[in-house]
Specification:
This protein is α/β, with parallel strands linked by helices. It is built from 10 helices and 6 strands. The structure holds uracil (URA). Uracil binds near residues 134, 136, 137, 147 and 152.
Amino acid sequence: MLDPRGELAEWIRYLRDIGIKELHVPAAAPPAARTAASAREMPVRRPAADPRPAAPRKGASPESRPPATKPAAPASTPAPRAAPAPAAPSAALSGGLAAIREELGDCTRCKLHERRRNLVFGVGNPDADLMFVGEGPGADEDMQGEPFVGRAGQKLNEMIKAIGFERSEVYIANVVKCRPPGNRDPQPDEVATCSPFLFQQIEAIKPKVLVTLGAPATKLLCNTSVGITRLRGNWQEFRGIPVMPTFHPAYLLRAYTVENRKKVWEDLKAARARVDEG
Ligand code: URA
């Protein structure tokens, strides 16, 4: 765990790394708006990822339980066939993250369950203003049951810090909740089965701004086949919520050019500004 000075140094290093020499912090933001400077001092509105069931709030509540853990099935052992399941979660259970998690249960709706260790539901502040949507869990996330905890997750954490948020202040989820084998892209049937739960998470959290990380999340939420390279940096919309598509942190790590880092920085700054607009 870094001390505050260490955190600040890390943040400054990231900004330098992407070629940012100065940061503009609005002098007089409206009291309700959280500026880059104030976000770190302000209390988080609700503790993140409390594993215990919580009292319902305005029809929504924090995610209620840790992901169900089960031993990984050996690749050679076919898992029992998935039981038929409803195509989408019932409207009656759309009221909160706990209910959505409950509805998912020990999900066997698509073939991704066969090899998963943990279902990766989502993490963060159930009242978040800013929500990030990735593609699907990787090996580390599958092991730990939490999104973005591996190398790409470290990069995402840096990105979140660079715009003045703590990881616990935002919400992070994925298009699919179980790891696609070999980190392949989620397939259309898997996305079709799992995405209603993501949509419900978004409806429950009601973020002011969504940031899609990479192609699958952008394609899904922006309902487009336009590639991420063309679409990133251009505001889109999902059910009335502004969406900023940007590169996936794993792509950034693979193509770690100043140009790409600057692009992501511009996208994130735009997202932050939109959050502050209210
Ligand atoms: N990549 C993703 O898209 N999601 C994760 O949770 C981890 C890596």
